[in-house]
């Protein structure tokens, strides 16, 4: 990933780019600097309105629709889940495609230091979650992007977790929220939204029955169903 400032600073030859939906919607792709764009099918499917579709068709560079391999999707999905990043299925496709092309490309990933060189690969996205995920794989070198970490916190007893949980292991309540943290170790601080209001997250099984605690057969069935949905890439990932 490279920042807009680095992108528009100018380089000697056009680049190849993985492009997120937002750049088409806002119609702000620097077309003179792009030789070829790559998008997953899910990005193409999000280009629905007439003006955006016309902009897509009028792009002066070649656009290759290429969905990433399932192995890369799984790798990205696992990485963002461990860091509690909330990415849509399309976001995961964009990151997975960038990772796949980066691995298969003999040239190194673009940074502000080598942005003027030929044959480089970049990712154009305005989504902070996508940037955060790219950084997990060493593909984000935007100096203006502020890195964030997330942990899960129980709203009832304030216990903190790095792993994904639905019910607090300390008090057993279904009061888990995601919080932003800065610093490390003893210097770690939790950042709270100014107008945050806790909203209970009610878990239900396929029959619509509420799940009141973990460690039950009903809860295990819920997790199995969620895993199937995630494999089908139809929901947000936590």
UniProtKB/TrEMBL annotation:
Domain Nin one binding (NOB1) Zn-ribbon-like per the UniProt entry, residue ranges: 148-201
A GO biological-process term: maturation of SSU-rRNA
Gene Ontology cellular-component annotations: preribosome, small subunit precursor
Keywords: Hydrolase, Metal-binding, Nuclease
Domain Ribonuclease PIN as annotated: residue spans: 18-101
InterPro entries in the cross-refs: NOB1 (IPR039907), NOB1_Zf-like_sf (IPR036283), NOB1_Zn-bd (IPR014881), Ribonuclease_PIN (IPR033411)
Record GO terms (molecular function): hydrolase activity; metal ion binding; RNA endonuclease activity
Matching PANTHER family: RNA-BINDING PROTEIN NOB1
Protein name: Uncharacterized protein
């Amino acid at each position: 990933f490279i920042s807009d400032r680095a992108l528009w600073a100018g380089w000697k030859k056009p680049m190849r780019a993985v492009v997120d939906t937002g750049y088409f919607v806002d119609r702000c792709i620097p077309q003179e600097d792009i030789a070829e764009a790559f998008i997953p099918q899910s990005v193409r499917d999000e280009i629905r309105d007439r003006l955006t579709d016309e902009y897509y068709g009028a792009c002066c560079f070649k656009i290759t629709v290429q969905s990433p391999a399932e192995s890369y999707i799984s790798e990205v999905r696992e990485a963002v889940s461990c860091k509690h990043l909330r990415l849509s299925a399309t976001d995961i496709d964009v990151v997975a495609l960038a990772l796949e092309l980066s691995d298969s490309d003999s040239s190194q990933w673009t940074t502000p230091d080598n942005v003027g060189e030929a044959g480089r690969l970049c990712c154009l996205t305005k989504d902070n979650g996508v940037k955060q995920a790219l950084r997990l794989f060493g593909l984000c070198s935007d100096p203006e992007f502020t890195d964030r970490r997330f942990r899960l916190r129980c709203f009832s007893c304030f216990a903190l977790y790095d792993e994904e949980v639905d019910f607090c292991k300390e008090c057993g309540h279904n009061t888990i929220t995601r919080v932003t943290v800065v610093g490390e170790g003893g210097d770690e601080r939790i950042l709270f939204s100014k107008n945050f209001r806790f909203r209970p997250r009610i878990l239900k099984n396929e029959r619509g029955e509420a799940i009141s605690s973990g460690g039950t057969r009903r809860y295990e069935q819920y997790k199995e169903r969620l895993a199937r949905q995630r494999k089908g890439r139809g929901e947000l990932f936590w």
